[in-house]
Amino acid sequence: MRMRPTMTWTSAEDLPPGATDPEPVVDALSTGGVLILSGAGLSTESGIPDYRGEGGSLSRHTPMTYQDFTAGAQARRRYWARSHLGWRTFGRARPNAGHRAVAAFGRHGLLSGVITQNVDGLHQAAGSGDVVELHGSLDRVVCLSCGAFSPRRELARRLEEANLGFEPVAAGINPDGDADLTDEQVGDFRVVPCTICGGILKPDVVFFGEAVPPRRVEHCRELVRGAASLLVLGSSLTVMSGLRFVRQAAQAGKPVLIVNRDPTRGDRHALARIALPLGAALTTVADRLDIPVDDL
């Protein structure tokens, strides 16, 4: 029987509640060299729900796994129908105060880098540079046969042409860009192949059950080694892809700070967890550092 990837986590530890004063974050940033690790919670204020917070999408939605996507054409039809619709919402999302604050910290030389688990591109849209997209990006597509990359907007155009009149109303949008549609709404949605070899197209994102490319992992490990501290923003750290960097930093004696309203799997490694909304917390931090956060 095929094992399902870990998607949920429940704490078995009696950890202290999160703090409500972000001063530890101010202290870390004031000395510089902070490496950011961001998760879906940072993008909720942009209208993109997270997986595991209050009202998170896992309560109603099982994300596509790599195993299911590659196993059958029907799973791919369902995925691309839902993702095609969800892409329209992602395209309208704009960076929020949290993204803008991170970009401002970078401009002022306080960061050693940004690693994001998100696939929405909002860090870059806010002005952050050299962002490592740990789980890839929805704005690129890759062919599983020939390995060619292409822009998502090009695929969106082809899917529009192949599915004229496809305008279902989704019950919700998920952090992976997948819209909630019934099988009836998916209907006979037509999937298009690679224009080069006719192979299967997949978004250039790491699905649940799929490994992050080893070179990308090693690059992130190098960033952790070179950082003075690690600041986690809006991630439950449930999956090992992000948690491993928290463990690495803690084992190296580097301070780990977490800003997340709910407990995380990395709390026992953290100097402090700040239980505040990301936008408000990071805006407060910027104010205390006398750093302006630009409006976009």
Task: Provide key terms for this protein.
elongated, 9 strands, alpha/beta, 34% helix, disordered N terminus, 6-stranded parallel sheet, 3-stranded antiparallel sheet
- If you average the pLDDT, what whole number results? 89
- What share of residues are in beta strands? 5-15%
Number of helices: 10
DSSP helix fraction: 25-40%
- CA radius of gyration: 19 Å
Distance between the termini: 49 Å
Give the CA-based shape: elongated
Which strands sit side by side, in order, in the main sheet? 3-2-1-7-8-9
* Major sheet details: 6 strands, parallel
Low-pLDDT residue intervals, each spanning 5 or more residues: 1-5, 55-60
Class inferred from helices and paired strands: alpha/beta
Sketch the topology as an H/E string, one letter per element.
HEHHHEHEEEHHEHEHEEH
For the secondary structure, the number of strands is 9
Outline:
The chain is α/β, with parallel strands linked by helices and 296 residues long. The chain is built from ten helices and nine strands.
What does this protein look like?
It is a single chain. The chain is α/β, with parallel strands linked by helices. It has ten helices and nine strands. It has a six-stranded parallel beta sheet with strand order 3-2-1-7-8-9, with helices on both faces. A hairpin with a 5-residue loop joins strand 4 and strand 5. Helix 4 packs parallel to helix 10 (278-288) and helix 8 (214-226) packs parallel to helix 9 (240-251). The N and C termini lie far apart (49 Å). The model is unreliable at 1-5 and 55-60 (pLDDT under 50).
